[in-house]
Description:
Elements: H1 6-16, E1 21-26, H2 31-42, E2 46-52, H3 54-63, E3 72-75, H4 79-91, E4 97-100, H5 105-112, E5 126-132, E6 140-143, H6 153-169, E7 176-180, H7 191-204, E8 212-217, H8 219-223, H9 225-230, E9 243-245, H10 249-262, E10 266-272, E11 278-279, H11 287-312
Parallel strand pairs: 1-2, 1-4, 2-3, 4-11, 6-9, 7-8, 7-9
Antiparallel strand pairs: 5-6, 5-10, 10-11
Amino acid sequence: MSAKHEKYQQLVEIAKSLQAVTTAVAHPCDESSISSAVDAAKLGLIRPILVGPKAKIAAAAKAAKLDISPYELVDTPHSHAAAAKAVELVREGKAEALMKGSLHTDELMAEVVKKDTGLRTARRISHCFVLDVPTYAEALIISDAAVNIAPTLEEKVDIVQNAIDLAHALRFREVRVAILSATETVNPRVPSTVEAAALCKMADRGQITGGVLDGPLALDNAISPEAAEIKSIRSPVAGRANVLIVPDLEAGNMLAKSLTFLANADVAGIVLGAKVPIILTSRADSVMARLTSCAVAALVAMAQREKASKAIA
């Protein structure tokens, strides 16, 4: 059995060796969000720009007994303005990552997806959870459990590619992608099984790159070698998946929360497909999960930086 936090600690240690990522933190006006930003800054993961009402940020820092004088602070009147300003800082090239503070996710994402002033790219925006499950040998990526409610096949192509790119940024040695459904056989009456088969064929034809795909797979034969053996499923993915693509948001949300509350997993969150990685933290997250979300963003930002440099060269 893996020690708790071991896989997260490895990610944090890798990220600490990199250059701190300048991060626009939108509305860090409670103890949880200001602590997350400052703790990550102290570890050298991020260089925060605190964006929001100056008095509220100062009050949150005082309540958390934190010194925020080393960090840049951009004063805004309210959370809507904080979200807009944080996104603007990214668009101006003054920040390489965006971090959610004590405002609702929808409020921040509304600014991110705006057509003229947001952070959209040609890629569909999607969310990934990175889980440290004590009983599983590797870190697990689950997508999409927070942004795309009922994605189409076309949207799932980007969801899968975003997750694969994340796995590479996190330095997974192999990226083994299981496209999940309720069964491992293709059944026209279960649309997710048909879409899983289509995604795998698209990967065969080079429309999805960087990982090995298999599906449809039920959860048991995606992560349990014994279950895969019993079902006579033989592939590089079956029983060994480290990326799980769920049929819809409800399935992903329930899977991630089941692992959190029943298997003592920690869950870090990141939004991909925008111009920069977006850190989504929750007040319910552990300190380690919040730090890991920042570490994940730092690794993604580094990967994007390297990709941009190669494109220029």
